[in-house]
């Protein structure tokens, strides 16, 4: 999977890059680049929480060829490393499952 840029997105939509930037700033309050970065990180979170893919594959799946660069950006956005985020999500799911089991027993 490739890492789409704001320029490529504008071209795909048939808009000038400046117009696309202005629309995003006006209606989303962030730049196209920020939106794309947030989208990549949301996708990475989903992959980390729902698969056992190696971090390198998750990074590549959201457009990062460099696992270190991906991990650094992921940590800056989420406050956790990718592996810590995955463990946290699995622990959280385990706690919810245990609570649901307890509630069914009463």
The largest sheet, given as strand count, sense and whether it forms a barrel, is: none
Query: Based on CA inertia axes, which overall geometry fits?
Result: elongated
Low-confidence stretches: none
Q: How many E-type strands?
A: 0
* Radius of gyration over C-alpha positions, nearest whole angstrom: 18 Å
The H-and-E topology, N to C, reads as: HHHHHH
Q: How far from one another are the termini?
A: 48 Å
SS field, number of helical segments: 6
How large is the share of residues in beta strands? under 5%
Q: What is the average of the pLDDT values?
A: 89
Helix-strand category: mainly alpha
Q: What percent of the residues sit in helical stretches (DSSP H or I)?
A: over 70%
Describe what this molecule looks like in 3D:
With 106 residues, the chain is mostly helical. Helices cover 77% and strands 0% of the residues. The chain has 6 helices and no strands. Helix 3 crosses helix 6. It is elongated. The model has no long low-confidence stretch (mean pLDDT 89).
